[in-house]
């Protein structure tokens, strides 16, 4: 009953083109963001550090991949690599110029990733679909190889791992060993909110329409005057930019370094892809829903079930994670190929009419 | 620098022909295995238009099932009998798997876009990883090579002023792979089911309209792919151990398919051999220039370079776009 | 647009001795005709006569092996389709080629892409020039939506629309490009009488209101004869007749092609 749009008239195109034309949606989103920022007051460091921080990192990467795969229809299996480029770029930059704020380098590292993304996106002019997946796989394995074979990237440390240095914002440590989970979380949350807003601006405007036109019917799009190569490369650039930033924050605000070379492997690429499949291709909300679900399932199996009294060992939990994720993917593809995000919008549509569906 | 890239490797090849032959042979053997995985992909792609990402994991799953069943059976039946009983049962398991996939995954997803079906096979992959590990455990297993009466040991050839070592098993693998491909070709060409399979490959709707049961065909083709996976699993497992680590190597089938084209059986074979030989040669002669280990990505770069010049693959027809 | 210099009745596009082959198959053989500014030009012929291939050549999707296409007095070389679009050639398709995942509004907005130019930087924030441009083009698109009487499906994903409406949205998308030359590939195929009448009205209105030059392929001979100023008839990739509807109707070769030759 609370969810009604009656009486809300839109008198300008600006108002009609807003992200959430319905007032209740705007209030709801505001409340969610507020709650997210206030969350550290009510929950433990453990929850913030192991649940919320990874969730936000995955969400950001999933938005990046969704721009490419969901909106432009280009399948990528190299997300992990593009994230790795961002992470290493950020590490080298902040080591070389420690006096510049690390947040600037986190954003700047996205540009490096974007450049690499464009390079591996070049074949997309001539090849499509599964063929393109090979180009992105090439990116994945070449870059995995680079982080092992090029010692300059990890500053010649003997173990091949990197240590994230402590960097501050307003004299508060936001990265490195001194940074508390709460600070890291709040910094990350701010980044994710801003980047999500920008992504939503891009996809609703001219560029987003060009991407979707290429996705839905590339030949027709070209006959409408859309240049396929430029449009696809732009998608690669923006998507890789997001992935790069996600990689940088993964390294600096979550992992804190360590065995970085194993972090950005092919499994990470697949995981992010699964997140957007389950969450919803071509919907920003889907990135969050997918990341939430796929990140929470393993945590629930590992910590939740034993807490409820169901004995489940670490290894068994891992097996069941695989089984459940596999079944979830198939289940969602059958029930709703457009993922959780579509289910949500259908629910909302029903809610608008409730209790009289016609 | 240029000398190191363009001249020196060839000088080495000429100076030490035995090493060249050894490298070529290694590449050939790796290529046969890539070709076998690619063959499984091609079978399914031809008949159902599904790009089966799970083929790699089916190889591992088949191998694990075989070894796992053998371990359960051999104490009571003895080794020789146990191995063959396990083999028969594994074939049964692959049939059940094919039937289940058709029922649970393919049938509800019929008429969905290719990309959706492709992603569904990701689900199958994940399920099989978790399922296989929870039944047979996650630790690598040793393939029951001798029990299946496969030859072991090596042949030392003293030729070309050096020594070339050839594993008997590799010869067996090449022969079996060849036989299997020939068998499949005959099956496709001369049986009623083979003809139906080719019809389905051309057009689902047209095949349906002349009374071919798609569901039946799909079970058959997934089962065939399962058999191919089992053979691959045995061959591969005999060279190294059977473990889920193999599934990443199965991604190498993608560049193979790109070279050969997604629908061509001979393409899969030739593509597999090119990739196998190409990457071993590249690793051995050019790898040291950049610190080695290029085997992990060379195949993809070869395929990519190739794609830019011939997007339709080696044996594919030129694509005419219509609107 | 550079074609502003052309007056009504001047030659907008000229096709000279064009031949197109796919491997050994000849789709078009030595076809010549012209399209004059402001007219409605019909291309008719039996199935497989090469009509759609002809349109594909005109908007740069296929490249004829022989012959030349002159547009606005300039002979064209081999080019990508988006160049043709930027020169003012728009197109609808025989099998509807809409962007299925997008709404009617977004589909038509895509047609405005070439007219939009706000910098990437402003696109990121959706403010300033980007927002002004978006509103200005939305206004234009709403006019087209009014014109085609599809207000009620503005925000419906086009994949869910019935066929007749999809055809209409596709026309809207092409009109949004403000083309000088509009190519319509069987705009009325698969429609019922009422829908056909609507579509005819839209085509005539487009021609008279905006002065757009239209080349259309259509199977319904009655419609073609009523709508078009001049007709070109193709059969097996060759031109067999060209002229006003009355002339074409009386041509013996056309009658043979459509009714068959008695043996």
Strand-helix topology:
The complex is a heterotrimer of chains A (358), B (323) and C (263).
Chain A: H1 13-16, H2 23-42, H3 45-71, H4 79-96, H5 102-121, H6 129-149, E1 162-163, E2 167-169, E3 172-175, H7 181-204, H8 206-216, H9 218-223, H10 228-255, E4 257-258, H11 260-263, H12 266-279, H13 284-308, H14 314-335, H15 339-353
Antiparallel strand pairs in A: 1-4, 2-3
Chain B: H1 2-15, H2 17-48, H3 55-77, H4 79-106, H5 114-136, E1 154-157, E2 164-167, H6 168-190, H7 192-202, H8 204-209, H9 214-239, H10 246-249, H11 253-260, H12 265-286, H13 295-309
Antiparallel strand pairs in B: 1-2
Chain C: E1 11-22, E2 25-36, E3 40-44, H1 51-58, E4 66-71, E5 74-75, H2 81-86, E6 89-91, H3 104-110, H4 120-125, H5 129-147, H6 163-176, E7 181-185, H7 193-210, E8 213-217, H8 221-227, E9 230-235, E10 238-243, H9 245-250, H10 252-259
Parallel strand pairs in C: 3-8, 3-9, 6-7, 7-8
Antiparallel strand pairs in C: 1-2, 1-4, 4-5, 9-10
Helix pairs in contact in C: 3-6, 5-6
Provide structural commentary:
The complex is a heterotrimer of chains A (358), B (323) and C (263). Chain A is mainly alpha-helical. Chain A contains 15 helices and four strands. Chain A has helices at residues 13-16, 23-42, 45-71, 79-96, 102-121, 129-149, 181-204, 206-216, 218-223, 228-255, 260-263, 266-279, 284-308, 314-335, 339-353, and strands at 162-163, 167-169, 172-175, 257-258. In chain A, a hairpin with a 2-residue loop joins strand 2 and strand 3 (172-175). With 323 residues, chain B is mainly α. Chain B contains 13 helices and two strands; from the N terminus they run H-H-H-H-H-E-E-H-H-H-H-H-H-H-H. Chain B has helices spanning 2-15, 17-48, 55-77, 79-106, 114-136, 168-190, 192-202, 204-209, 214-239, 246-249, 253-260, 265-286, 295-309; strands at 154-157, 164-167. In chain B, strands 1-2 form a two-stranded antiparallel sheet. In chain B, a hairpin with a 6-residue loop joins strand 1 and strand 2 (164-167). Chain B is globular, with a radius of gyration of 21 Å. In chain B, 43% of the residues are buried. With 263 residues, chain C is of the alpha/beta class. Chain C has a six-stranded mixed sheet with strand order 6-7-8-3-9-10, sandwiched between helices. Chains in contact: A-B, A-C, B-C. Chain A binds chain C through residues 12-14, 17, 198, 201-202, 204-207, 209-210, 212-213, 215-217, 219-228, 282, and chain C through 59, 61, 80-82, 84-86, 90-91, 93, 97-102, 106, 109-111, 113-114, 116, 118, 120, 123-126, 130-131, 133-135, 138-139, 142, 173, 177.
């Amino acid at each position: 009953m609370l969810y009604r749009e009656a009486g809300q008239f839109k008198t300008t195109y600006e108002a009609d083109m807003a992200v959430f034309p319905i007032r209740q949606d705007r209030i709801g989103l505001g409340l969610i963001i507020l709650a997210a920022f206030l969350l550290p007051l009510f929950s433990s460091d453990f929850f913030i550090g192991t649940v919320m921080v990874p969730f936000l990192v995955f969400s950001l990467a999933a938005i990046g991949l969704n721009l490419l795969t969901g909106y432009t229809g280009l399948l990528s299996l190299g997300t992990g690599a593009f994230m790795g480029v961002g992470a290493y770029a950020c590490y080298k930059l902040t080591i070389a110029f420690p006096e510049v704020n690390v947040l600037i380098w986190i954003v700047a590292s996205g540009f490096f990733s974007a450049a690499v993304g464009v390079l591996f996106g070049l074949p997309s002019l001539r090849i499509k679909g599964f063929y393109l997946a090979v180009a992105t796989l090439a990116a994945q394995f070449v870059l995995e190889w680079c982080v092992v074979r090029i010692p300059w990237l990890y500053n010649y440390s003997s173990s091949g791992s990197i240590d994230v240095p402590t960097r501050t914002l307003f004299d508060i440590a936001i990265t490195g060993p001194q940074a508390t989970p709460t600070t890291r979380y709040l910094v990350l949350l701010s980044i994710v909110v801003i980047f999500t807003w920008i992504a939503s601006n891009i996809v609703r405007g001219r560029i987003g329409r060009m991407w979707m036109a290429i996705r839905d019917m590339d030949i027709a799009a070209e006959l409408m005057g859309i240049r396929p190569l430029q449009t696809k490369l732009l998608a690669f650039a923006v998507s890789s930019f997001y992935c790069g930033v996600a990689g940088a924050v993964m390294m600096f605000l979550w992992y804190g370094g360590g065995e970085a070379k194993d972090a950005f492997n092919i499994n990470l690429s697949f995981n992010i892809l699964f997140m957007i499949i389950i969450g919803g291709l071509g919907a920003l909300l889907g990135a969050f829903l997918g990341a939430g679900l796929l990140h929470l399932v393993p945590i629930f199996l590992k910590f939740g079930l034993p807490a409820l009294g169901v004995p489940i060992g670490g290894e068994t939990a891992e097996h069941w994670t695989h089984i459940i994720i596999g079944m979830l993917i198939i289940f969602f593809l059958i029930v709703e190929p457009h993922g959780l995000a579509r289910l949500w919008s259908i629910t909302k549509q029903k809610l608008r009419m409730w209790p009289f569906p016609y | 620098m240029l000398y190191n890239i363009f001249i020196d490797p060839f000088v080495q090849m000429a100076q030490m022909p035995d090493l060249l032959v050894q490298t070529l042979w290694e590449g050939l053997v790796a290529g046969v295995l890539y070709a076998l995985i690619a063959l499984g992909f091609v079978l399914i792609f031809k008949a159902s238009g599904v790009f089966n990402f799970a083929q790699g994991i089916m190889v591992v799953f088949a191998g694990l099932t075989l070894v796992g069943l053998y371990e359960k059976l051999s104490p009571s039946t003895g080794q020789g009998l146990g191995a063959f009983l396990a083999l028969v049962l594994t074939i049964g398991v692959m049939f059940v798997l094919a039937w289940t996939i058709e029922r649970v995954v393919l049938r509800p997803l019929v008429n969905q876009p290719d990309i959706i079906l492709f992603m569904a096979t990701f689900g199958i992959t994940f399920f099989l990883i978790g399922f296989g590990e929870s039944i047979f455990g996650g630790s690598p297993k040793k393939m029951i090579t001798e029990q299946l009466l496969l030859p072991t040991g090596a042949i030392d050839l003293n030729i070309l002023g050096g020594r070339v070592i050839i594993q008997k098993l590799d010869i067996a693998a090449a022969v079996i792979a060849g036989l299997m491909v020939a068998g499949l070709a005959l099956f496709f060409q001369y049986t009623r089911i083979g003809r139906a399979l080719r019809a389905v490959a051309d057009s689902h709707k047209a095949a349906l309209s002349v009374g071919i049961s798609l569901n039946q065909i799909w079970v058959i083709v997934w089962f065939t792919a399962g058999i191919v996976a089992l053979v691959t699993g045995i061959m591969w497992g005999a060279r190294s151990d059977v473990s889920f680590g193999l599934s990443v190597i199965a991604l190498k089938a993608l560049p193979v398919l790109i070279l050969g084209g997604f629908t061509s059986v001979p393409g899969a074979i030739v593509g597999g051999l090119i990739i196998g030989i190409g990457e071993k040669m590249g690793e051995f002669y050019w790898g040291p220039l950049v610190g080695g280990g290029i085997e992990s990505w060379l195949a993809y770069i070869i395929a990519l370079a190739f794609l830019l010049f011939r997007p339709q693959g080696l044996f594919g027809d030129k694509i005419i776009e219509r609107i | 647009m550079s074609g502003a210099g052309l007056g009504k009745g001047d030659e907008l596009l000229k096709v000279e001795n064009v031949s197109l082959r796919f491997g050994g198959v000849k789709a078009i053989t030595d076809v010549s005709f012209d399209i004059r500014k402001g007219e409605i030009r019909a291309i008719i012929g039996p199935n497989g006569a090469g009509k759609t291939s002809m349109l594909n050549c005109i908007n740069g999707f296929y490249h004829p092996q022989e012959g030349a296409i002159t547009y606005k007095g300039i002979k064209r070389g081999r080019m990508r389709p988006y160049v043709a679009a930027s020169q003012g050639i728009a197109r609808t398709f025989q099998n509807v080629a809409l962007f299925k995942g997008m709404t009617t509004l977004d589909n038509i907005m895509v047609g405005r892409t070439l007219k939009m130019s706000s910098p990437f930087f402003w696109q990121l924030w959706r403010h300033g020039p980007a927002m002004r441009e978006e509103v200005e083009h939305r206004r234009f698109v709403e006019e087209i939506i009014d014109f085609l009487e599809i207000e009620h499906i503005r925000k419906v994903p086009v994949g869910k629309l019935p066929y007749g409406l999809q055809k209409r949205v596709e026309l809207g998308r092409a009109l949004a490009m403000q083309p000088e030359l509009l190519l319509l590939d069987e705009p009325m195929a698969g429609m019922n009488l009422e829908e056909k009448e609507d579509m005819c009205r839209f085509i005539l209105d487009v021609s008279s209101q905006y002065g757009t030059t239209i080349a259309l392929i259509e199977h319904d001979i009655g419609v073609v004869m009523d709508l078009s100023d001049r007709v070109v008839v193709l059969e097996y990739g060759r031109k067999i007749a060209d002229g006003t509807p009355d002339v074409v109707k009386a041509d013996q070769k056309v009658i043979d092609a459509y009714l068959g030759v008695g043996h």
